[in-house]
Amino acid sequence: MVGLDQVLAARDRIGRDVLRTPVALSDALSARAGGEVWLKLEHRQTTGAFKLRGATNAVAGLGDVAGVTTASTGNHGRALAHAARARGLRAVICMSRLVPANKLEAIRALGAEARIIGDSQDDAFVEAHRLARDEGFALIPPFDHADVIAGQGTLALEILDQIPQAPSIGVPLSGGGLLAGVAAAAKALRPDIRIIGISMERGAAMAASLAAGHPVEVTELATLADSLGGGIGLGNRLTFPMVRDLMDDLILLTEDQIAAGIRHLASEGHVVEGAAAVGAAAVLAGRLQGPFPLVLILSGANIDPAQHARLLEAA
Fold it and tell me: Which residue range or ranges hold the Tryptophan synthase beta chain-like PALP domain (predicted)?
């Protein structure tokens, strides 16, 4: 398992390459929830999402490789492309047909190759594994990797420095790299802190795996929280047991609830993707009510502008 020492080492390793993102008190969400709700503005990260932390930490630990590869729903691929370019490495990012066009374009803009494979992240991983096996690429998975988890855990160090009294953190949950890292660091420093995972009802692989007691495959479905899609891997070694053991609660949301979260955060001046809006959505739906002060991680900003405009018009 990944521990506090690894997260602290990651903070030292990536400190010059990632932003320390601010927090902001949400008066509107605080009034709705009945206690202070703080937003961790990680959507302002350099690549528009928290994934830069884990990707940068993982790439920093590589030796001599032909390049780097991964399978991604978009944000990890963009982060890995950014980290690879900084090291002068070739990057091939494998993605399914469900990845939004704006995320593909952002990856290509960083000089990486975006390779479209199949209808799911699991399909894309087949090609990423082939590149690692046959062509000497380093495979940096989006979540089930110790250096990736440790990098994401640096968010918890910042949160507890900025809001040291916070008794609870709401964390978007997909493959579990963010939640595992945040929970490992936060609970090592504050064993009583509550970590609440938040995801969508449509195709939440970690939720289905937890219910089954082991990693399972799920059908990947289109969702507003597209960054939370994809499987967790049947051979998952790290994030499944860490999420199982460290997460205190899990909330699953409908598409309408996620849309409401996106719209609300836009009204506060935060343009975020669906995955980043799930915390606000849970508060608005009356599903998340402290303990306070509650910190919500706004995990990414990479929403398709046309989709965002349609959601605002539909209000």
Answer: 18-300
Locate the domains of the chain by residue range: 4-49+145-314, 66-135
Q: Would you identify the CATH topology of the domain 4-49+145-314?
A: Rossmann fold (3.40.50)
Higher pLDDT residue, 171 or 314? 171
Catalytic annotation, pick one of 40, 51, 103, 187: 51
Instruction: Give the Cα separation of 43 and 276 in Å (integer).
Output: 8
pLDDT in tens, 61-107: 999 999 999 999 899 999 999 999 999 999 999 999 988 899 999 99
Do 66-135 and 4-49+145-314 have the same topology in CATH? yes
Backbone CA torsion sign across 88, 112, 223, 260: positive
| In the predicted structure, residue 230 carries a pLDDT above the cut 90 | no
Q: Has domain 66-135 been given CATH number 3.10.20.340?
A: no
Asked whether the beta carbons of 155 and 11 are under 8 A apart, the reply is no
State the catalytic residue, choosing from 174, 199, 227, 299.
299
Element (H, E) at 116: strand 113-116
Confidence of residue 131 (pLDDT cuts 50, 70, 90): very high
CB 302 within 8 A of CB 274: no
Backbone angles phi, psi at 249, to 5 degrees: -160, 155
- Please give the pLDDT value at position 121: 84
Query: How big is the chain by its Cα radius of gyration, in Å?
Result: 18
Rounded-to-integer distance, Cα 213 and Cα 240, Å: 9
Instruction: Dig out the tokens for 304 from the structure.
Output: 């398709």
CA proximity to 81, closest of 276, 98, 90, 71: 90
φ, ψ for residue 264 (rounded to 5)?
-65, -45
